[in-house]
Amino acid sequence: MLSKEDSRRLAQLERQLRRDDPDFCARMGGGNFSVPTPRPPLALFIVAAVIAVAAIVLGAVGWWIAALIVAVWGVVTAIAASYRLHKFRTR
């Protein structure tokens, strides 16, 4: 019989192993452990916003070619973030 502390520690080790290597757990335990769901791509949206601000600053300074390149880069980043958000919500 395990003590309360030993049971808690064993449960913690099992959770960590399931998170680190779910394929191994599925093979050894015969169960089908689900992979943890990913978080929404908040960082990508923040990066896209920072890039958009940089494009506005470059445009205000008068560097139009650089502003255009950075604006395209920001749009591509925003599209990637939107795509990942859509994949996140359909799970």
What does this structure look like?
Keywords: Membrane, Transmembrane, Transmembrane helix. This is DUF3040 family protein. The chain crosses the membrane at residues 42-58, 64-85. This protein has helices spanning 4-20, 22-29, 42-61, 64-89. The protein has 91 residues and is mainly α. The longest helix has 26 residues, at 64-89. The protein is elongated and about 75 Å long.
Keyphrases for this structure?
0% strand, 91 residues, DUF3040 family protein, DUF3040, membrane, mainly alpha, 4 helices
Q: Unreliable runs, pLDDT <50, ≥5 residues? A: none
- How far apart are the first and last residues' alpha carbons, in Å? 40 Å
Q: What fraction, in percent, of the residue positions are helical?
A: over 70%
- What is the CA-based Rg, rounded? 22 Å
Largest sheet: none
Q: Give the total of domains.
A: 2
What sort of overall outline do the alpha carbons produce when their principal axes are compared? elongated
Strand content: under 5%
Beta strands, count: 0
Output the helix-strand order.
HHHH
Quickly count the helices: 4
Given helix and strand content, the structural type is: mainly alpha
Mean pLDDT: 84
Pfam family, one: DUF3040
Transmembrane segments: 42-58, 64-85
Protein name: DUF3040 family protein
InterPro entries: DUF3040
Give a brief outline of the structure.
The chain folds into two domains: 1-36, no CATH class; 38-90. The protein is built from four helices and no strands.
